[in-house]
Amino acid sequence: MCLNSVRAATIGVGIMVLVRLPVGAIALAAGFGVVAAAAAPSKPAPAVRAVVDCRGIADTTQRLACYDAAVDALSKAQSSGDLVSLDREQRRAARKQAFGFTLPTLSFLDTGEKPEELNRVQETLASASQDAWGKWTFRMQDGAVWRQIDDEFLSRNPRPGSAITIERAMLGSFMLSVDGQPAVRAHRDN
Question: How is the chain split into domains, by residue range?
Answer without folding.
Answer: 2-109, 119-188
